[in-house]
Design brief:
This protein is α/β, with parallel strands linked by helices. It folds into 2 domains: 26-91 and 251-459, Zn peptidases (Aminopeptidase, 3-Layer(aba) Sandwich), CATH 3.40.630.10; 105-237, Glucose Oxidase, domain 1. It is 36% helix and 24% strand. The protein is built from 15 helices and 14 strands. It has helices spanning 3-16, 18-37, 41-52, 61-76, 135-139, 164-174, 176-182, 222-233, 286-305, 326-333, 367-374, 396-400, 415-418, 431-449, 455-460, and strands at residues 80-103, 107-109, 111-113, 125-132, 150-153, 187-191, 217-220, 239-261, 266-276, 311-318, 341-346, 354-358, 382-383, 407-410. Strands 1, 2, 3, 4, 5, 6, 7, 8, 9, 10 and 11 form an 11-stranded mixed sheet that branches. It has a 3-stranded mixed sheet with strand order 13-12-14, with helices on one face. Helix 9 links the parallel strand 9 and strand 10. Helix 11 (367-374) runs antiparallel to helix 14. The radius of gyration is 24 Å and the shape is elongated. The protein starts with a helix and ends with a helix. It binds zinc ion (2 copies).
């Protein structure tokens, strides 16, 4: 039989024999799951990255070492077509910082400047604080009412399994300084987006207002936010001095690092997965996002070791997620192949374990996804009836262009104790959770890459 006839016969068999097709995929996925559970690749990737590179903000000298580390690691793991895709990142790098209560009860505060914070003048800013227990309270202040003050928002974050607690108050960090500046504030302090009680502030990026002055902004540790609440409750004006130095470069050299498992039948059809290589500076970028890049890289490697899948699996280690630059750069560079991007997803919510799978819209009943679902029971993962909508910020641009995505949701209960803080270190990761996540991703990548599932067509049904 000719090749063409053989593949026509295979296609016909698919139509009539979906059962056998699903059984083959399920057997392959189960085999990968079991191999992943006993595999230490992801763990060794995180161990290597946090030990040999450490913190690596975009635009820093450490990011150069991270870039070289990533190229060497992907090549050593057997990926093909390993290369760099350069772009310009919006970089912000921290300088010396301090904060203290000046009156009425002088004592130091633990803060971290936020990405895109303006530096304070030399010697710092000293002003009375205006403290709000919620972001809505800040929004309720009329224009000009915070003139000359340091605005402080001390709203607490809720611990959740799916990151909803972070989503609910993310604007406190990202939009707080802009809203404070519009009301006349000279600086902004936010209670860290943290579920922990450690006296460690949690960093993160923010946006300055385009219609008001750029102001200094910093995160307070949770205990320090509570300290300011207690001082304010005593009824006397509280004065704070804040000193923040930083430098920024709106077009810093940056790179997405790419490696592929080339497909055997449809190499131009691509499954794009990965995590981000950059990190915030206080910790060593272990859970954010050493874990995510390690899990997806290890999963792709395992899929490749089973033999080339039908389609190409491409691992991308995005180079400036924390400053929102790498996803946009990637989408712009890959616009032309968007129709061939079968699926795009990023693992960027910690070290697991994965507890929920949200599949692309309309895909639940496809034999390939049913095959995937059959291997999940021992991994304690539930398949949600809700379709995936967000797949990580570095693939948001691809999704906006029409790429399907998946949500393999890790349990984030502990993630935000650590996220963007000095406590984001390797010891916080349980290697068994990491292996469980790899098992879920490997089974999923395999059932997508080795099948002909067309998520776009399914979504349209
Ligand atoms: Zn991240
Ligand atoms: Zn982050």
């Amino acid at each position: 039989m000719s090749r063409r006839l053989a593949s026509a016969a295979a296609a016909a068999a698919l139509l009539t024999g979906g059962q056998a097709y699903a059984q083959d995929l399920a057997a392959g996925a189960a085999e990968l799951r079991d191999r992943a559970l006993a595999d230490g690749t992801a763990w060794s990737i995180v161990e290597s990255l946090t030990t040999e590179v450490g913190p690596r903000p975009a635009g820093s000298p450490a990011m150069l070492r991270a870039r070289d580390w990533a190229v060497a690691k992907l090549a050593a793991l057997g990926f093909k077509n390993v290369h760099l895709e350069p772009f310009a990142a919006d970089a912000w790098l921290r300088g010396p910082e301090s904060a203290e209560v000046v009156a009425p009860f002088p004592q130091p505060l633990h803060v971290l400047g936020l990405g895109r914070s303006a530096p304070t003048p030399r010697g710092g800013i000293e002003a009375e604080i205006a403290l709000f227990r919620s972001f809505d309270e800040l929004l309720a202040q009329p224009p000009g009412s915070l003139k000359g003050k340091i605005a402080v928002v001390t709203q607490a974050m809720t611990r959740t399994m799916d990151g909803a607690g972070y989503g609910a108050i993310n604007r406190n960090r990202t939009q707080g300084a802009a809203e404070a500046s519009r009301r006349g504030a000279v600086a902004y302090l936010v209670r860290s987006l943290s579920t922990d009680d450690a006296r460690l502030p949690h960093a993160g990026a923010m946006r300055q207002a385009s219609d008001a002055p750029a102001i200094p902004a910093a995160a307070l540790s949770v205990p320090d936010a509570q300290l300011l609440e207690r001082m304010v409750a005593r009824g006397r004006p509280v004065r704070v001095r804040l000193s923040l130095a930083s430098r920024s470069d709106p077009a810093a050299p940056a790179w997405n690092v790419v490696g592929e498992i080339p497909g055997r039948e449809a190499p131009d059809e691509v499954v794009v997965v990965g995590g981000h290589l950059d990190s915030w500076d206080p910790g060593t970028g272990a859970v954010d996002d050493g874990a995510g890049l390690a899990v997806t890289t290890a999963a792709a490697k395992l899929v490749g070791e089973r033999g080339a899948p039908r389609r190409t699996v491409r691992v991308v280690l995005w180079g400036a997620e924390e400053m929102d630059s790498s996803g946009e750069a990637y989408a712009t560079a890959h616009k032309a192949e968007i129709g061939k991007i079968v699926l795009a997803a990023e693992s960027d919510a910690g070290a697991g374990p994965v507890w929920q799978a949200r599949l692309p819209k309309g895909a639940l009943d496809h034999p390939a996804m049913k095959a995937f679902a059959t291997v999940l029971a021992p991994l304690k993962v539930v398949v949600s009836r809700e379709p995936a909508t967000v797949g990580g910020s570095d693939v948001a641009g691809l999704i906006a262009l029409g790429a399907p995505t998946v949500g393999l949701t890790p349990d984030t209960s502990r993630y935000f104790d650590l996220h963007h803080s000095a406590d984001d270190t390797r010891d916080k990761i349980d290697p068994r959770d990491l292996a469980q996540s790899v098992a879920v991703w490997a089974a999923f990548l395999y059932t997508v890459a080795d099948s002909d599932i067309d998520f776009r067509a399914l979504a349209g049904k």
